[in-house]
Amino acid sequence: METTVKNKPNNIMYLVFAMVAFGFLGLEFGVLLISRIIDGRSLAQIGNWPIHWYGAIAHWVITIIVWLIGVYLIYLWAKKKDIIKDLIDFKLSNRVFYLVIIAILTVIASAMVQMFISGAQFPQVFSEYKGFEIMYGDKAFIVTLFQVLYYFAEMLLVFVMIVLFQKFGEGVFKNTYIPYGSIGLMLTWGMIHFISHPAGALGVTIWALVPGVLYVYGKKSFLPVYLLLVLGFIL
């Protein structure tokens, strides 16, 4: 038992690995250098949308691979430290089922509010599909599919950040009821959207509060929080 306790990481390591996850998200900016070559764009066009449908898919595929590598490396660290069961509850139960319903209703309610305030289309993924149809014609569906896969990969890293920021906060402040994961997510992933996607950055930053709260009061259940994160970008 003493050996197991000694093997546990100290609080600062949770913060370090949360920032490692955030760093892997930021590597997408590096992927732009590669994907713009595949797409045939110049360096001056590095931040522009891909001209060709295969340029968009190439960007998302490379980014997904990079992000999944990040998730896997953090998983290996957590497994070695034997802390996965302390961080995430993968079990399915009636409670988890109710939390899933709450997650879905929360996303739908948020989407309805956005639609009322800003005229955003519901579901968001359909609006994006129509945009891709204008840009890429009959390749819009396959481009949309890869963008959805991109969201699934991104939300895995976002979930990891919530978990690790929460564990860091609980260890430092000795309070398990404050959503430190939300605070960490707002100050990192939320704020970076002011650079990458300024138009929707404020909404994303505010939304970052929600999954961290669900994680804390949902007793660290994986499925409801991950579903909330993914649906938040699809609906």
Provide a descriptive summary of the structure in words.
The structure is a single chain. The protein has 235 residues and is an all-alpha fold. Helices cover 78% and strands 0% of the residues. It contains twelve helices and no strands. It has helices at residues 2-7, 11-26, 28-39, 53-80, 84-87, 94-118, 124-136, 140-173, 180-196, 201-207, 209-217, 222-234. The chain is globular.
Described by its quaternary structure, the protein is single chain
Order of SSEs: HHHHHHHHHHHH
Shape: globular
Instruction: Classify the helix fraction into a percent range.
Output: over 70%
Distance between the termini: 46 Å
What is the residue-mean pLDDT, rounded to a whole number? 88
Explain the layout of strands and helices.
Blueprint (H helix, E strand, L loop, with lengths): L1 H6 L3 H16 L1 H12 L13 H28 L3 H4 L6 H25 L5 H13 L3 H34 L6 H17 L4 H7 L1 H9 L4 H13 L1
Protein name: CAAX protease self-immunity
Keywords: Membrane, Transmembrane, Transmembrane helix
Short description:
The protein is mainly α.
